[in-house]
């Protein structure tokens, strides 16, 4: 380890101090002449600073009151979720095997999970994540007032990671209101509610860090809102709320190497959640809308070849014959840049936007062909069955000579 010569350093510091002192003395008269003005300026600055402090304090208190108001308005709609599941495990006792020649057997054990959810109707429908209740034999929800209810599973959408539960009760519950997640802006407040690590009735605050996050490998359909509000295990299924108390998303995942929050959380947008929720309540399952296209993300080579100004949009690698896209006139090598006026910058974002629509709904697509934009409309249909989709894939492979 290198050592610093402090004495030598002190001598240099002393010489510099003396020089500064001489220079200060030489300007003493000039400084004295301006003392009165300087004093007045300082007093004025103090007065302004005090006014600013009062203004900033008032603004801070107003922001604080807004957060308190949000908590008070939504707390009765948030639930903690716990599940019970009986699992069969293999048992092994090496001593038993040594003494009796038996290697063990099987026994049933009870396991469970914790999560969050929120009320979406007065008659007790609740939204949460599919992975919170997946495989559960019993599902219970508990409100902030301590009331607990056993619920039934109405239906799930594993591809979106949404599940809908129902409380069997004649009571009237307080539902949360959904915001239009297409209008979410980066930088706006985002407030996460839930049951992190089993700590019920918890609230954390952050901002919307990004929107339209996809290709993360979390779910089949991804169009996430990203937030830096602290989200941990147990927050899954809880709502992400805006400053007006409306739901902008459902907390579903975090990016973390440690397992704890590092300020990168993801929420399923409200519009997609509403579509899935309504479909499950009506049909017991999510009827995913279908447009019939094969997609690729745009790269530099495609941008140049297609004479595009930017890489914003999705590349149509092919269309399904007689599908909604083909009927609308969309063709191979087209580029779609927006759905109902909302820009889509990746294949994942496009899939998420279509999934947020309803079967039978008409959508307007902004399409670029030969470098020129146009708008087309098409009506979404119900996604074909797995058998039909396999037939479509095999037909396309034959056309490609595979």
Please give the share of residues in helix.
25-40%
The total count of helices amounts to 10
What structural class is derived from the secondary structure elements? alpha+beta
Count structural domains: 3
Strand sequence of the main sheet, in spatial order? Answer: 1-3-4-7-6-5
Key attributes of the depicted protein:
402 residues, six-stranded antiparallel beta barrel, Pdz3 Domain, 10 helices, Thrombin, subunit H, alpha+beta, six-stranded antiparallel β-barrel
Helix and strand layout, with pairings?
Blueprint: H1 6-26, H2 28-33, H3 35-74, E1 78-90, H4 94-100, E2 106-111, E3 114-119, E4 125-128, H5 130-133, E5 138-142, E6 148-157, E7 162-167, E8 189-194, E9 202-213, E10 224-227, E11 239-241, E12 247-254, E13 265-269, H6 270-283, E14 289-290, E15 293-297, H7 300-305, E16 314-319, H8 324-327, E17 335-339, E18 342-343, H9 347-355, E19 362-369, E20 372-379, E21 381-382, H10 386-399
Antiparallel strand pairs: 1-2, 1-3, 1-5, 3-4, 4-7, 5-6, 6-7, 8-9, 8-11, 9-10, 10-13, 11-12, 12-13, 14-21, 15-16, 16-17, 17-18, 17-19, 19-20
Description:
There is one protein chain. The protein has ten helices and 21 strands. The protein has 402 residues and is an alpha+beta fold. The chain has three domains: 74-167, Trypsin-like serine proteases (Thrombin, subunit H, Beta Barrel), CATH 2.40.10; 181-283, Trypsin-like serine proteases (Thrombin, subunit H, Beta Barrel), CATH 2.40.10; 289-399, PDZ domain (Pdz3 Domain). The strands form four sheets. A six-stranded antiparallel barrel has the order 1-3-4-7-6-5. β6 (148-157) and β7 form a beta hairpin. The longest helix is centred in the first third of the chain and has 40 residues, at 35-74. The protein is globular, with a radius of gyration of 30 Å. The N and C termini lie far apart (67 Å). Residues 1-30 have low confidence and may be disordered.
């Amino acid at each position: 380890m290198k050592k610093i010569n402090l004495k030598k350093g002190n001598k240099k510091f002393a010489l510099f101090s003396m020089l500064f002192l001489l220079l200060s003395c030489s300007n003493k008269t000039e400084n004295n002449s301006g003392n009165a003005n300087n004093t007045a300026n300082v007093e004025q600055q103090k007065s302004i600073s005090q006014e600013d402090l009062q203004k900033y304090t008032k603004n801070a208190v107003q922001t604080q009151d807004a957060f308190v108001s949000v908590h008070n308005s939504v707390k009765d709609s948030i639930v903690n979720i716990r599940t019970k599941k009986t699992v069969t495990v293999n048992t092994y006792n090496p001593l038993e095997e040594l003494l009796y020649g038996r290697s063990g057997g099987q026994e049933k054990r009870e396991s469970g999970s914790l999560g969050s959810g929120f009320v979406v109707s007065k008659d007790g429908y609740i939204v949460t994540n599919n992975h919170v209740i997946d495989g559960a034999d019993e599902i219970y929800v508990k409100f902030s007032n301590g009331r607990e209810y056993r619920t039934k599973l109405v239906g799930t959408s594993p591809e979106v990671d949404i599940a809908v539960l129902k409380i069997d009760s004649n009571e009237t519950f307080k539902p949360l209101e959904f915001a239009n997640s297409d209008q979410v802006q980066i930088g706006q407040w985002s407030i996460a509610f839930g049951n992190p690590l089993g700590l019920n009735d918890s609230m954390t605050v952050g901002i919307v860090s990004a929107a339209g996050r996809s290709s993360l490998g979390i779910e089949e359909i991804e169009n996430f809102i990203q937030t830096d509000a602290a989200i941990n295990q147990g927050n899954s299924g809880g709502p992400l709320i805006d400053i007006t108390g409306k739901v902008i998303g459902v907390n579903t995942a975090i990016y973390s190497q440690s397992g704890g929050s590092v300020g990168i959380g993801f929420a399923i947008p409200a519009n997609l959640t509403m579509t899935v929720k309504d479909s499950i309540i009506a049909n017991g399952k999510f009827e995913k809308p279908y447009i019939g296209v094969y997609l690729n993300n745009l790269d530099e080579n495609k941008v140049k070849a297609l004479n595009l100004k930017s890489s914003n949009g999705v590349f149509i690698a092919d269309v399904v014959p007689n599908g909604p896209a083909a009927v609308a006139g969309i063709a191979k090598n087209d580029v779609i840049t927006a759905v109902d006026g909302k820009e889509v910058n990746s294949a994942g974002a496009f899939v998420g936007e279509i999934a947020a629509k309803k079967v039978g709904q008409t959508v307007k697509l902004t399409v670029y062909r030969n470098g020129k934009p146009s708008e087309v409309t098409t009506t979404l249909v119900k996604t074909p069955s797995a058998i039909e989709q396999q037939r479509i894939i095999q037909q396309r492979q034959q056309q490609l000579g595979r």
